[in-house]
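Weekly structure sync, notes
Attendees: PL (lead), two postdocs, one rotation student
Agenda item 3: pending single-chain targets
PL asked that the sequence for the first pending target be pasted directly into the notes so everyone works from the same version. It is reproduced below exactly as submitted, 291 residues in total.
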Amino acid sequence: MAIFKIQKSKVSQISLNEQGFGSEFELRDLFADNLEEILGVRFLAKEYPTTDGRIDTLGIDENNSPVVIEYKWKENEEILSQGLFYFNWLVKNKKHIELLVVSKLGSNIKVNWDQPRVILVAQGFSRYVQAAVQQVNNVELKTYNYYGSDILHLESVYSPAGVKVNTGKEVQKEDKSIYDLNYHFGIATPELQKKANQLRELVLQLPSIEEKVGQKTGITYKTTKSFIRLEFRRTWIQLLLRDSSYKIDSQNLVKDISLNEWGYKGMVKFTAESDVDYVFSLIKASYESTL
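Predicted structure, written out during the meeting:
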């Protein structure tokens, strides 16, 4: 993919900086220092000690779900197994994470363990890693390219569309794969479903977005960062946006919920009577804030 710089109507191609970052630590520190801007994840810790090794970066996303982030300077086969190792530690040590959240972000935030995440960042991933990751839950792959003129390009290579949970013979676990579109839309009345589908069709036309299902509480739409979340009720949808207000909101539909410290700061009550085009304009503003 070619990257071009435009100056005074003149176009020049920006070349890939083959040296990239000087070390894996430089890569980690850049992400850690700008975690919310790059990934939409609030920073908790870097080089966080576990019983065996250290997690590169720990964070919490806009849904208050914990996020493990691991980096590799180049392509590296070990990154998937390493990420899964730390994910296993994470879910077995929930109290450690909850205490860390309280110490860093305050006691108002309740950690959501519905869908913890692992984000793996590297210059590339082998076909073996890209195939294997499709058989596990909650893991995302992102590649980076570092260009001259200090430009960082981040691309999502793989993100699970939903969540599949394997159940053993002795221990029955909740099957989160049932939380698909039909599950969420089925909560609403037929009239609200029709309106929500119209809104969804507009959202899906936005470039380079992902639709994340498999969560009991709602549906999330994201670029590299989440920009909207739909949480269904029978007669209305709680529509969460990134910011507490938007200049284009002449009808003052957006309610400031920043005190909740959810990560999302604005909320719109979407009903069967809502103006789809107007609400979509607010969603688009939220989307553009992630670019």
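Discussion points:
- The helical segments are 24-33, 35-39, 79-92, 94-105, 127-132, 181-185, 190-203, 276-288.
- The radius of gyration is 20 Å.
Action: rotation student to compare against the earlier draft before next sync.
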